[in-house]
Design a protein that fits this description.
11 helices, single chain, globular, mainly alpha
Amino acid sequence: MEASFQRARRPEQKTERREHILATAAELAQHAGVARVSLGDIAVAVGLAKSAVLRYFGTREEIYLQLAVREGTAWSAAAGAALSRASGYSAAATALADAYADRPLYCDLTTHAETMLEHNVSVAALRVYKVWAIDTYFTVGRQITVACPQLSDTDGASLVMAASAFVAKLFPLTRPPEALRQLYDREPEIARVFPPFRPTLQRMIAATAAGLPSTH
């Protein structure tokens, strides 16, 4: 929703403007992909100069890093709710995979977290993100151990980290560029080599979980 004021002066107006910037950046990323959205795109969409946007966020990467925390918190809640009903490696893997597959924006943010979003941001912004990420790994990790008693808390956190690495590799396959789509249309045997996202992610997480106790 567009702000009803031109210049944010009061604290509540500044909060509203920040939320508007975040919501707009999220919407742009859902359509074009995180990597293709520039600071200029966000500024134009919210009706501000780039310098005005930078009064609220240090960089374009900081905007998306904050969105990663927000989207990841929602992912964690969904995964935790599903894990509370899960039992065994396969069910736990399904809980994690479904929570990811149902949140494509978070998958896209996860794909670019280490390679893009952690660059060109302040130490303070990085600390907020990293503290949140570590807490999320262990919070969801402990919930995994309830469903999979063979795993330790460290195993659970490691499984969450592994799941995010699988997402970073698999999710881009769901958004091939135009030239690649044309190739797949012409030669479907090439397209068939690349597996569907949700079931492949589930299978990779389950296989990793089953192998973790043997590393003790």
